Amino acid sequence: RYPAPLLAWDEARCELLPTDWVRRLHRLGLEQGNLAELALLLVDAGEWRPLEKLVNEAAPLAPLRELGALADLLHRALLCAGERQDDPVLQAEALNRLAAPLVEARRAEQATPLLERALQLLQNTAGWQVLGETYRLLGRCFELQGRLEAAEHLAQSAAELAKRLGNGPLLAQASQALAR
User: Fold this and answer.
1) What pLDDT does residue 62 have?
2) Could you give phi then psi for residue 57, rounded to 5 degrees?
3) Which of 40, 66, 166, 179 is 20 to 30 A away from residue 74, measured at CA?
């Protein structure tokens, strides 16, 4: 038997990685597969509320680069749940979640259609919290696209809605957008 190596080769980066890092990446891959499989099982079973809870609980993992594809899959599963339940608010929330990383990556041209669809879905609903987030994200897209008047209008709408709802985080984000 040979001793376990202390380093492993990462061909993508052409550098050596500590073995514990490789093990961590392997473990993340396993967990990613488990979460994806659980999400798909919940979709197949039509268990929408547990799926929504899984997506919410997994949300803090989304910023991890290694789990970006998993976050996308979970949000698409949530969109599917909203479509199957004919729940426009759930669909709009899933579209916001799909658009948010695109907005953060300054890919407004890809995020805008998702957010415009979310706005259409939210017409004649009581999904005010989701609507406020849609306004904020779409306003940021417009800002990135140089459509400053439209961006300011949406940021103002988001701020007014946040005040009415008592949503402090959304109000702070909308106020930051208005200050830019």
Assistant:
1) 76
2) -70, -30
3) 166
Average pLDDT over residues 40-69: 83
Mean pLDDT of 67-75: 83
Q: Which amino acid is at 110?
A: Q
Question: How does pLDDT run across 2-33, given as a tens digit for each residue?
Answer: 444 444 444 455 455 556 656 666 677 788 88
- Decide: 148 and 129 in contact? Cβ < 8 Å: no
Cα–Cα distance between 106 and 46 in angstroms, integer?
34
Contacts of 155-162 spanning 24+ positions with Cβ under 8 A: 158/132, 158/133, 161/128, 161/131, 161/132, 161/135, 162/132
Q: How many C-beta neighbours within 10 Å does residue 178 have?
A: 14
Q: Give the predicted TM-score (pTM) of the model.
A: 0.75
> pLDDT exceeding 70 applies to what percent of the chain?
85
Adjacent-strand bridge partners of 8 = 17
